[in-house]
Amino acid sequence: MDLGVITQFVDVVAQQIIGAIFIVAAVTKILARDEFIGIVYSYDLLPQRWASTFSLVLPWCELSVGIFLVLPLPNAFSLVAIASSGLMLCSFAVAQTLNLLRGRIIPCGCLGNSDRLISWQTVGWSVLGCFFTVGLIVSRLSGSTAGLSLAVQFSPRCCATACLLVLAGARQLRINEELLRDLVLAMRRRIPNDALRTT
User: What sign does the dihedral 41-21-77-7 (CA atoms) show?
Assistant: First the structure.
């Protein structure tokens, strides 16, 4: 099979996957609007007024970009949507990294709820998504297999970095689970004593 056909097929599939992820993320944020606003505040990176506006605008931007990525639009529109998704993923990675470096473990808000906390693993997934968008842009702009060749040469280091972040996040998650389990056990041991003192 021609390499150009394979490249085009991979590009389309990758674009559809990224678009679907953005649509799902946007819908969940819209449905959990109040909770997502609180999560944006918890990042503590924007003034309160800007954070409120950002939390209302971001889901609709994600939804628009996701739809543009999924629909068979002209190449120019697709490039704008791909670049926008890459910028958003990069901003998510930066926001999470800043809070992790400050020692703050807060809800990720990736899907609009507080079920998942930020970690180096979530940063790794965002960075990996950025690399996918870069590869798509290079491939689209080149219009030939040269773009795929450049992406293949560039991707090993990028993927290695992202994998290290994911592995570090998995390790951190295990450590947090162990600390949480120890904390729960300690609290259970203290409850009877506290109850006796109150009586």
Answer: positive
